[in-house]
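In this section we walk through a basic example: taking a raw amino acid sequence and producing a predicted 3D structure, encoded as discrete structure tokens. The instruction is simple. Fold the sequence below.
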Amino acid sequence: MLVPAAGSRPKRQRIGRGHGSGMVKTGGEGGKGQTVRSGGGKGPTFEGGQTPWARRLPHRRGYSQKARDTGHFRSRYAVVNLHRLARWDPSVEVSPESLRERGLLKKTLDGVKILGGSEVGKSLPQGLRFRDVVFSASAREALGAAGAQLEAPETPG
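The resulting token sequence is shown next.
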């Protein structure tokens, strides 16, 4: 015969079965009124009856950009560190499409940004050409020193 392990099924508490049980009169429900009712009690924002904090604040009109999701107002760039272009063929223009073809990007998101991350022993090829890409300040400086052609991305409108 199968029997549950000892202690895994505690005995049910029987309510209202005499003073010896310790569960008489209110039967574990406390006093009368609000606290006895299901869902009763005061919420986490209750402040003893004074005007709650959220209602004491001055009323703000309109909407805040901070309250909306960040994708609404912020540009999200797919980033490529500069040292990843060390083996790039200078005859091929660096663009979002060519970066995806060579597996340096998965998605282009709202644009592509080249960051100035470098690694020891990796140098940039001379004469790289860029199109539709933005640069961090350190990447722009390093590429300028390497003689790269930096074309500003097309701005909409």
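Looking at the output, two observations stand out. Residues 72-150 form a domain with the Ribosomal Protein L15; Chain: K; domain 2 fold (CATH 3.100.10.10). Strands lie at 78-81, 112-115, 129-130, 134-135, 149-150. In the next section we compare this with other chains.
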